[in-house]
Structures are given as structure tokens and as C-alpha cells.
From TrEMBL, chain A:
Organism: Winogradskyella wandonensis
Protein family per UniProt: Belongs to the ABC-4 integral membrane protein family.
Pfam families: FtsX (PF02687), MacB_PCD (PF12704)
Subcellular location: Cell membrane
Membrane topology: Multi-pass membrane protein
InterPro entries: ABC3_permease_C (IPR003838), MacB_PCD (IPR025857), Macrolide_Exporter_MacB (IPR050250)
Keyword Protease assigned: no
Transmembrane segments: 21-41, 286-311, 331-357, 377-397
Residues of the MacB-like periplasmic core domain: 21-237
Keyword annotations: Cell membrane, Membrane, Transmembrane, Transmembrane helix
Domain annotation ABC3 transporter permease C-terminal: ranges: 290-407
Entry protein name: Putative ABC transport system permease protein
Any single GO CC term annotated in Swiss-Prot or TrEMBL for this entry: plasma membrane
Entries under PANTHER family matching the protein: ABC TRANSPORTER PERMEASE YTRF, MEMBRANE COMPONENT OF TRANSPORTER-RELATED
Automatic annotation (TrEMBL), chain B:
Keywords: ATP-binding, Nucleotide-binding, Translocase, Transport
A cellular-component GO term for this protein: membrane protein complex
GO molecular function terms attached to this record: ATP binding; ATP hydrolysis activity; transmembrane transporter activity
PANTHER family: CELL DIVISION ATP-BINDING PROTEIN FTSE, LIPOPROTEIN-RELEASING SYSTEM ATP-BINDING PROTEIN LOLD
The keyword NADP belongs to this UniProt entry's keyword annotation: no
Signal peptide extent: none
Taxonomic source organism: Winogradskyella wandonensis
Family to which this protein belongs: Belongs to the ABC transporter superfamily. Macrolide exporter (TC 3.A.1.122) family.
Pfam family, one: ABC_tran
Protein name as it appears in the record: Putative ABC transport system ATP-binding protein
Domain ABC transporter: 2-233
Length: 414, 233
């Protein structure tokens, strides 16, 4: 295998048979190229969808209210349902053992936020400390809202990274004062969110301070909970689903809403959605692998096919070589070594081309559902080797048969 | 150099059995230039194939340079072919994607000689057959006579004990045939043992001994007055 003379002979043969070499190489390279692109996009979709989900906790139960659409117990439709602190307390108490984090929010949309001469409109929310985990907010600097802030109505704010960049540029915002509708708040933290810019364009205040400043009384705009995750994902989904239904039932009873009024109160649970999406991702992955494996099989068959043609075409040459003293093993070796070299080289070429395309085109893919399309290099290398081995295997039979050809048969004049 | 005793060979085609060689006895001494003649179907090519270890006899003994040739597996046959024999074919059988010099160097590759030495020797033999200037041409760029000379150079390159030529002039015109025979005679003059299969009288008379085959047996084996090909060129 590492005989220099042999390699010289093989390179010479390949050089002298450019078209054949090129065609074999092309079929292998394109197979691997397609596989790499497919796997890249499969992982891109997985990354994209996963990060869409990571903007908030995946095990969240979200409660918000609107206007009733149905009359119930003598009450007219069109009534605005307002959540209060007592509703939050009720849900928290009733399902305490199943809940992990809980927060009640009071939000002000399009809050004008200013620092010195910079201003911007952001979503401003009064929240409880647990909101950090429900929002999946990573604290970059400082800290999140804590219970002392809430209890003492402190005028503090935690701002998203986007807000920090917009208003403070490169300045460190910690302990600086921002004004929201003219009221100054001290920045105590900056957070990052895997959900990206949109999620990082928010300002969090303590729930109590926000309500005091904006006349909220004991009103709540919405509330969020996360359910405790059990080891078994399906079990967690079932628990989450049951609690969601139970919360909806409790609140409808308490707030006097018709049981079949779906608009007045919405209790969503993301875990069930997550499960659907994860199984969708699994399906997409399976489909891509199926196509990928199909491509590889086609590639192997292609290589085998070309090998048969090569051997057929070279029957006479093989006869000549045998008459000149080539032993059968050297004939098999020659054909296989040549085939392995071509498949390996072009396989790697296809691999590198595919990786390059993903690397270059990847960042330009502007879709929230496809992110960082990339391929695990180990997987890709493995597929190349599988292709090479399978190709060699497919080539062995014709090579073996070629070595068995009697020189007199091969040299017989047609 | 070659001792053959009671050589038999038959081919089986379905239920028919064709007895091609029916007890051949013949010896060739070192330095001889022998032609094997016979009409088609006389068994001359079969005999040559057996001599060339491209085919094996059913019965009888074949000793080449003191080595009994029998029960050969592919590997040993390949080794013996490489070591003992040089082939010259009617249709030249050059590898068409290799240049003249690479074609000539090929048997030496299977001998395990390194590339530098191979090329050097190949050039030497090409020079010997008068094609030094054509060493980097492909077979397709050479005339029939030139191709056969390249083939002869290749046969010589492995420095064999015996040269086996199967209708070496069969695909050539008369003038070129004589040129090739002149070359073969020259090589024989240097002491190389050569066997030529031919059905052309004039070519046969350029050898030193004619063996006549008919229906699988030797009907005549006699030395002849050698006609030098040079006179006709």
C-alpha cells in the first residue's frame, strides 16, 4: 500500500485517464457534497427551532385574559377580564407542588425609555424575581430583580442587552439611571436571551414598583409558571397538560367565565408545543438521514458500476500486465488502490466543498427556523470512509474477476 | 533450454472434445532461432501458449532452463513469465495510454526494479530497436512497424531466457516485416533463444530451423539455410 513505485504507477494511470478519473470522482464528490448539505440543513433546522424555543422556558404555562365572548350566569359578553394578585396567589397555592417558578407580570407596551439624550421604545414589564428563569434571561452584568426590590417598591430596572447597546452604547449601564415616562430607575442588571434581539429589547421592573408608577393597583396583565420537569419527558408533558387544564378551570370558575369561552382566558402550555416541535425535528432528521443514506447507496452503486466498466475496459491491459509478469494480487491491488484513492480523494473534496458552502452561505441564511447550518465533522468523515470502504467492496468483485482472467483470453484478437 | 516430451492438450467445448496437441516432442537449445509453422488449427498457437505458460498442458513434461514447468499457480506462473519469457504478439499489445518508454519499462516494474533504472534500461532497449527518438510517443502515434519494435524492446527489457513471438509480422506489410525480422535476427545473433510462430514461408526461412505442425503432431523438424532479412530491406 505504501510502495512508492506502486503509487507512481497509479498516479500515472489516473493522469492518463483523466475523463474516467473525473467521472468517478464526480459521482462520489457530488454524493458526499449533497449529504453534507443535507445534514447541514437538518442541523440548521434543529438549531433554529430549538433557539426559537429557548427564548422562553420550554416548560412554561402562560395565562392571559381578554374579553368574554359569551354571556354566563347573567353576565353579558364583552366583559374585560382582569387578573388580580389574588388569582395569582390562588393558582400558586393550588398547584404549588407541581410548579417550579412563578411570576405575575404587569406590562406597559411602548414604554419610552431614555438615558441622557438617547431614547427608545421598549416593552416594559413589572415582574417577580422568578421571571428570570421563565424568560430564560442570562444575567450578563449585575443582577436580576429580587424580592427586596419587589417588597420595598424599589425603583430599579434590569435591561436587555439590546436596550443597553441602544441607550448606553459602550458605557457600563450598572448604577446609571434611566427614565421611563419621566420616572428615574436605577439599572441593576443587563441580561442576554437566547431568543435574540427581540427578546433582549425589554426592560424589567419590580412588579410592585411598576404598578405604583403606572396606577396598576393589584392588577396583573398575565402570569407565567413553569412546571417541575420529571425525568420522563412524556410524563412531564402529561402533567403540564393536566395542570394547564386545571388552572383554566379554576380561573374560569373564580372569574365567572363560561366554560366554553375560549377567548376570555387563555392558558397555554409550551411543553406540549415543544413536544410536537421536537418530534417534528426528529422526523425532519430522519427524512434527511434517509435521503442521505440513499445518496450514499447511490454513490456506492455508482462506484461499483464504474469499477465494472473500468475492469471491462482494461481487460486487455490486465492480460498484457499478466503476460508481462503481474501476479493476481498486484492486479487486484492496482484496481482497488486506484478506486480507493479516487473515492477517498473526491469524497474528501466533496466534503470540504460541502463544508465550505455551509460555512460561507450559512450566515446568510435568514430564517428564524434555520440557524447555523453545520455538520459534525466526525459524522462527515465517517460517511466518507463508509463510502470508500463500500466502494472498495463493490470494486473488489470485478477486480477479483479481472485477476482471474487468463491472459490468453484477454489477449485474444477480436 | 526447452525440453518438451509427449505434450498433450485438448479443449472441451460442451460435449465436444478437441484434441489439439497429440504428443509433441521437441527440444530447443540455447541460442536457437526456431520457427513453428502450420496452417490454422494445427496447434501452433496452443503450443506457444503452453510454452509461454499462458496455458497448461494436460499431459507431458515441459522443462524450461532446467526448471520443470508444472502445477503452476497463478503467482508462480506470473513470476516465471516475468523471469524467463519475453512475448511478442501479432497485435503488439502495447498499453495504449503509456508512452513507448513506459511500455518498455513495465515488465521491469513487475521485477521490482526502481523507476530510475527502469527508465534508463527502457531507453537503452528503445535505442537498440532504433526508436530512441520516439520514446515519449504514445502507441497511437507510431506506425505498425514501430509498435512492433516497441513490443520487441519490451520483450527484451525483462532480459528473458527465451523470446516467444506469435505471428510477429502478421499485421505488417512485407517491407516492415523484413525490418522486424532483421531486428529479431540481430537479437538472435547476440545469443538469445527465440521461437517464432508464423504461417509465412519467407518469414520461416529467416529462422535457422523450421518445425512443421499438422493436426497436433510435428510432421517435420529440420534446420534451414537462414535467409538474412537485411538483403531484402
Amino acid at each position: 500500500m505504501f510502495n512508492v513505485e506502486r503509487w507512481q504507477e497509479i498516479f500515472e494511470t489516473l493522469r492518463k485517464n483523466k475523463l474516467r478519473t473525473f467521472l468517478t470522482g464526480l459521482s462520489v464528490a457530488s454524493g458526499i457534497f449533497i449529504l453534507v448539505i443535507l445534514l447541514g440543513f437538518s442541523s440548521g433546522i434543529e438549531n433554529g427551532v430549538t433557539s426559537e424555543f429557548q427564548q422562553d422556558a420550554t416548560n412554561e404555562i402562560f395565562v392571559r385574559t381578554r374579553i368574554t365572548t359569551k354571556g354566563y350566569k347573567g353576565l353579558n359578553p364583552g366583559r374585560r377580564i382582569q387578573l388580580k394578585d389574588e388569582d395569582f396567589a390562588m393558582v400558586s397555592n393550588n398547584y404549588d407542588e407541581f410548579l417550579e417558578y412563578r411570576t405575575a407580570n404587569y406590562s406597559i407596551w411602548g414604554g419610552q425609555v431614555a438615558y441622557k439624550n438617547e431614547t427608545g421604545n421598549y416593552r416594559v414589564q413589572g415582574v417577580l424575581p422568578d421571571n428570570q428563569f421563565i424568560e430564560n434571561a442570562d444575567i450578563g452584568k449585575g443582577r436580576f430583580i429580587n424580592f427586596s426590590d419587589v417588597n420595598e417598591n424599589r425603583k430599579v430596572a434590569v435591561i436587555g442587552n439590546k436596550v443597553s447597546q441602544d441607550l448606553f452604547k459602550t458605557e457600563n449601564p450598572i448604577d446609571k439611571y434611566i427614565s421611563i415616562f419621566g420616572i428615574p430607575y436605577k439599572v441593576v442588571g443587563v441580561y442576554f436571551d437566547p431568543g435574540g434581539e427581540r427578546e433582549e429589547s425589554q426592560v424589567f421592573l419590580p412588579l410592585t414598583s411598576a404598578r405604583v408608577a403606572f396606577n396598576g393597583g393589584d392588577n396583573i396583565r398575565n402570569m407565567s409558571f413553569t412546571v417541575k420537569m420529571s425525568e420522563n419527558f412524556d410524563e412531564a408533558v402529561a402533567v403540564s397538560k393536566n395542570i394547564t387544564e386545571a388552572i383554566e378551570k379554576d380561573l374560569k370558575e373564580k372569574l365567572i367565565i363560561a366554560p366554553d369561552d375560549t377567548a376570555a382566558i387563555r392558558v397555554n402550555n409550551t411543553l406540549e408545543e415543544a413536544q410536537k416541535i421536537y418530534s417534528l425535528i426528529d422526523t425532519i432528521k430522519a427524512v434527511f438521514w434517509f435521503i442521505g443514506i440513499g445518496t450514499i447507496i447511490a454513490g456506492v452503486v455508482g462506484v461499483g458500476n464504474i469499477m465494472i466498466i473500468i475492469v471491462k475496459e482494461r481487460t486487455k491491459e490486465i492480460g498484457i500486465r499478466k503476460a508481462l509478469g503481474a501476479i493476481p494480487a498486484s492486479i487486484i491491488g492496482m484496481i482497488l488502490q486506484e478506486a480507493i484513492f479516487v473515492t477517498m480523494f473526491s469524497g474528501l473534496f466533496g466534503l470540504i466543498a460541502g463544508l465550505a458552502v455551509l460555512e460561507i452561505a450559512g450566515p446568510y441564511v435568514d430564517s428564524p427556523f434555520i440557524k447555523f447550518p453545520q455538520v459534525d465533522f466526525g459524522t462527515a468523515i465517517t460517511t466518507v470512509f463508509i463510502l470508500v470502504i463500500a466502494g472498495a467492496f463493490a470494486g473488489f468483485l470485478p477486480a477479483y474477476r479481472a485477476a482471474k482472467i487468463k491472459p490468453i483470453v484477454a489477449l485474444r484478437d477480436e | 533450454m526447452i525440453q518438451i516430451k509427449d505434450l498433450h492438450k485438448s479443449y472441451h467445448m460442451g460435449s465436444n472434445s478437441l484434441h489439439v496437441l497429440k504428443g509433441i516432442n521437441f527440444n530447443v537449445k540455447e541460442g536457437e532461432l526456431v520457427s513453428i509453422m502450420g496452417s490454422s488449427g494445427s496447434g501452433k498457437s496452443t503450443l506457444l501458449n503452453i510454452l509461454g505458460m499462458l496455458d497448461e498442458a494436460d499431459r507431458g513434461s515441459y522443462v524450461l532452463d532446467g526448471v520443470p514447468i508444472k502445477n503452476l499457480n497463478e503467482k508462480i506462473a506470473a513470476k516465471y513469465r516475468n523471469e524467463f519469457l519475453g512475448f511478442i504478439f501479432q497485435s503488439f499489445n502495447l498499453i495504449n495510454y503509456k508512452t513507448a518508454v513506459d511500455n518498455v519499462a513495465l515488465p521491469m516494474f513487475y521485477k521490482g526494479i526502481n523507476r530510475k533504472e527502469r527508465v534508463e534500461k527502457a531507453r537503452h532497449y528503445l535505442e537498440k530497436v532504433g526508436l530512441a527518438d520516439w520514446s515519449h510517443h504514445l502507441p497511437s502515434e507510431l506506425s505498425g512497424g514501430q509498435k512492433q519494435r516497441v513490443a520487441i524492446a519490451r520483450a527484451l527489457a525483462s532480459e528473458p531466457k527465451v523470446l516467444l513471438a506469435d505471428e510477429p509480422t502478421g499485421a505488417l506489410d512485407t517491407k516492415t516485416s523484413y525490418e522486424v525480422m532483421d531486428l529479431i535476427q540481430g537479437i538472435n545473433d547476440e545469443g538469445k533463444t527465440i521461437l517464432v510462430v508464423t504461417h509465412e514461408e519467407d518469414i520461416a526461412h529467416m529462422t535457422k530451423r523450421i518445425v512443421n505442425l499438422k493436426d497436433g503432431v510435428i510432421i517435420d523438424d529440420s534446420p534451414v539455410e537462414q535467409v538474412r532479412a537485411k538483403q531484402h530491406v
